[in-house]
Amino acid sequence: MGTGQRRDERARAIPPRVAAQATALCVLLAACMTFLTITVTPATADGTGGCTATRGALVAVDFGPFGGPVEHGCDLTPTTGYDLLHDAGFSTAGTQHDGPAFICRIGYGAFDSGTQYPTSDKEPCVLTPPATAYWSYWIAAPGQKDWTYSPYGAMDRKLKDGDVDAWVYGGTDVQGSTGKPTFTPDDVRGGDPSGPGPGGPTGAPGKVDTKAAATWLTGQLTDGERVVDDGATTPDYSLTADTAFALAAANGKSAALDKVTGYLAAHTADFAYPDGTGQAPDATAVARLALLAEITGRDPRAFGGHDLLAALTANVCAAGPESGEATPGCTAKGDFRASSYTEGQALAVLALLRAGVTPPAAAVDRLTRLQCKDGSFTSILIRSGEYCDPDPATTGLVALVLHRVGGHEDAVSAARAYLGGAQRADGALPGYTGSTTGSVNATAYAAQALAALGDTTRATAAVGWLSRQQLKSGGFGFEEGATDPAVYATSPAVLAGSGTSLVTLTTKATGPTPPPTSPSGTPTTPAPAPGAGPDLKKGVAYLTTAANLRQGQYYGDGTTSGRADFGLTIDGAYALAATGLDNARLRGIVDFLDHRGKDGAGRTVDDWTNVGTSYAAAGSLGKTALLAEAVGRDPRHFAGHDLIAALDKAVCAKAGTGGDRACAAKGAYTYAPSVFAQSLAVMAQVRAGDTTSAQRPIAYLESLQESSGAWPSLIPSTKDSDVDSTAIAAMALDLAGGATADKAVAKALTWLASRQLADGGFPGTAGDSVNSAALAVQGLSLDAPKYARQIAKARTFLASQQNGDGGFAVAKGGDRRSDLRASTQAVGGATGISFGTLKRSLTGTSPQPTPSPSGSAPDIVTTGDAGGTGDSGGAGDGGAGTSGGGGILAATGVQAGALAAIAVLLMLAGWRTVAVARRRTGTGSGR
User: Fold this and answer.
1) Which of 23, 454, 462, 603 is the most exposed place for a label (fewest CB within 10 A)?
2) For residue 641, how many C-alpha atoms fall within 13 Å in the half-sphere facing its CB?
3) Measured between alpha carbons, how far is 418 from 382 in angstroms, rounded to an integer?
4) Angle, nearest 10°, between helix axes 237-251 and 210-219?
């Protein structure tokens, strides 16, 4: 960096450094045979005595419905919600259908000799339990007074000291607004309700005058093109670049910005290669220039005659001084050479991400290793064992970058907590450790990070404080009370006041993703919906990576059992069919299912559909048949079965009585407790020409529509209004046709459009949900001309949630890791193609080998990899749940917490983050 203003700020902000200093791995093995309930036994309980409100994690299980007490447990070294249960002394059992992932029974040694409840005479745990009777999962953060229905499966919930969990047997609605524990988190804490973290800020809101600030910045430019420090004769390229960022944020594309950008392009060699082009570049300077190119729509591979991206990737340190072969400019392995400061490391990672280049893993890892124990990040590229001095501004920047990288939610959450704890009541943050004076630079970066992470209250307070620091000239000083404006402080304040950051700032309008074409000739499906949508090619690459698509044929269920998540696997196939970008991988999945290939646990798709048994799940049957129809296979001869005949047999003639849960109503399907399952089965029958047998199911689906135009999630109706269910029901009825169906579809689309959020997203259980937005695009595309504006906004929203690896987050403002289940829906949904009309020819592809069940090939699992059985959706949450492919699949935005039924339904639906619906222990449930 090396500018006068930067040096002055650091001199005040960085006290002397001093030296200082620095897991347990638990492997849970679960094996299961078809129709054998899997039980996980507990470890020795820690007991609640060792845990406090700030040390360890606590869990409570209410055995009241079974005549028992509320039992408590503790884990002094918490990892996940699933492990917390077992480490605290509880045992669990999964379902035959879903495996250990979905928690169906819980037992505790001190109650009834460890008997697991509900007992088998009450709940066989074959399929996912109903939403009216299952173990629902509730969570509370440190200091939180009320319970929140968990948007994650227990395996996906990453615990920290002070967290509290609860499991309650009974029923919930889709939103988790009913069925809460009768005790509070403080009751579990044992009268020690105090938790870390201050109260929220109370500072008044305010608005930064970004135009005035931009005008002041423009006035600081010599010849309108460069910043020259007072007393200097040479340009300050770093501050010039910062000025360009601020002008882009305040005014967008402009002549002033073009002039500054042109000047920097012409002086790229001077800025980026201060020691000559034959030497390693200044990584921070290269990153700034690359970001400016990306923000203004220029090519970072040819900016000022230099390939800036290659300059970064070619200069990552292989080792530090400890290797004995120190490279100049390298402090440790993973450093970008000559970065010196954490800021440069973060900007370099971000520059690569924004250009679509995956940053070197070592570089990202290095960034995470600069985090201090309190969650902050140090501003200096320290070595292991050196003093880690918290820096609020750096913490804000790194939190933004790691949030964009994805997969580092623990680090990001810790950084967010640090920023919240460092924020004063008036919204300001100090510039360095020990300071009590509000810093403009620190507060600006914190505001950007807090806004991106969904902490709008704190972000708003921070911007409000900044607005009160703006000087009459329009500029900002370094800290509160300053009278002299500085470029260094003004630039980040403008970005914060504009509601943007270097992660999202842009002046160009990108065009829509080109429509996919069939390699065999004419496209067989409509062009993608309008809007600046996600990068489908990168999305498909993520879905088909070896770490996700195991043996090239199926997605795992998130556990170590080797079980496939068949529902999620079919979701992936739908996405590949919709895009047409990898028909070879699509065929691999289809052949695996059609030939009844066995997963690592020896299971086939039959074990998911239960075809030919008394537990045949119509939603799963319909989902499988629909895939066969989409790729030109015969659903009457698929996977060795006549799936259409099986669906005919699954149509209920009347509602079940007593304890019979198979049929919810006349016209429903067996074991299809959701609108999603009903819709999938209807589409499969209609596409097969089985319209006569489908009439009762169609009529029943129509009867479930509410007066608003929406559909509920579950069957029988719980009277909730759900985006995902409404979209899929509209697709089914659009395919069925008829006057009644047409009116229902029109009404449904009107309701869907009314549910769109300001950012283009749609509400789901997980919040501003990727899953819901994708399904809404498919639904609204049934009348694309009328809803073109809403579709375009939703596609832009989906693009904003895509990570550098091509995958998608579950929801905006939540865990930024790429989630496999959310990604399958986002990729397919972004095309706007209805499941009712989806078609992809496999002509020209070759047969794919069917893997053996032994797992001779390694079962590769990556962080967050999982996906639940893709099928089930019973009770809202009983599953431990896990995210698919690198994310929290449990909260994909469907009914996440929803219900067991949901789970089933999820199971069926596979794509809704069924996880939601049943927090599958290690896998998310599918629709």
Assistant:
1) 23
2) 24
3) 20
4) 150
Q: Choose among 818, 698, 721, 835: nearest CA to 777.
A: 835
Contact 93, 880 (CB under 8 A): no
CA distance 218 to 227: 9
Say which residue the tokens 């895939």 belong to.
Answer: 627
Write out pLDDT tens, residues 571-584. 999 999 999 999 99
Q: d(Cα 119, Cα 169) in Å, to the nearest integer?
A: 13
How far apart are the C-alpha atoms of 641 and 651, rounded to whole Å?
17
User: Which pair of structure tokens corresponds to residue 374?
Assistant: 């309190």
Please choose, from the candidates 543, 581, 518, the residue with its C-alpha nearest in 3D space to the C-alpha of residue 821.
Answer: 543
Can you tell me the mean pLDDT for 226-233? Answer: 87
Share of the chain above pLDDT 70, in %: 80
Distance CA 700, CA 664 (A): 11
Q: Of the candidates 757, 723, 202, 174, which has an alpha carbon nearest to the alpha carbon of residue 454?
A: 757
CA–chain centroid gap for 435, Å, is 36
Please report where in the chains the tokens 């700030």 appear, as a residue.
Answer: 54
Structure token digits, residue 480: 């509160």
pLDDT digits (tens, 9 = 90+) for 105-155: 999 999 999 999 999 988 988 888 887 889 999 988 777 777 878 867 787
Tokens of 741: 């169906």
The pLDDT value recorded for residue 159 is 83
Give the 3-state secondary structure of 589-653.
HHHHHHCCCCCCCCCCCHHHHCCCCCCCCHHHHHHHHHHHHHCCCCHHHECCECHHHHHHHHECC
Asked whether 902 and 598 are in contact (CB, 8 A), the reply is: no
Backbone angles phi, psi at 294, to 5 degrees: -65, -40
Whether the CB-CB separation of 810 and 755 falls below 8 Å is answered with: no
Whether cis (ω within 30° of 0) applies to the bond prior to 205 is no
Determine contact, residues 776/752, Cβ cutoff 8 Å: yes
What is the chain's mean pLDDT, rounded?
A: 82
Q: What is the pLDDT of residues 445-484, one digit of tens each?
A: 999 999 998 888 899 999 999 999 999 999 999 999 999 9
pLDDT at 322 over 80: no
Instruction: Label the pairing between strands 762-764 and 554-555.
Output: unpaired
H helical segments located in 652-806: 675-687, 691-703, 723-736, 739-754, 770-780, 788-800
Give dist(CA 58, CA 338) in Å, integer. 46
Q: Which two tokens stand for residue 578?
A: 């919709």
DSSP string, 304-347: TTB-HHHHHHTTB-S--GGGSSPPTT-SSTTPBTT--BHHHHHH
Say yes or no to pLDDT of 561 above 90: no
Q: How far apart, in whole angstroms, are the C-alpha atoms of residue 690 and residue 700?
A: 16
What phi and psi values does residue 654 have, to the nearest 5 degrees?
-160, 170
Environment class of 571 (CB within 10 Å of its CB; exposed 0-12, middle 13-18, buried 19+): buried
CA angle 601, 603, 609 (to 5 degrees): 145
β-strands 811-812, 767-769 pairing: antiparallel
Closest by CA position to 58, among listed 43, 41, 74, 46 = 74
Q: What's the rounded Cα separation, in Å, for the pair 393 and 840?
A: 50
Q: How far apart are CA 711 and CA 899, in angstroms?
A: 16
Identity of the amino acid at 699: A
**39-40: strand order across its sheet:** 39-40, 90-93, 105-108
Tokens read off for 322? 């400890």
Q: Do the bridges between strand 39-40 and strand 90-93 make them parallel or antiparallel, or are there none, so unpaired?
A: antiparallel
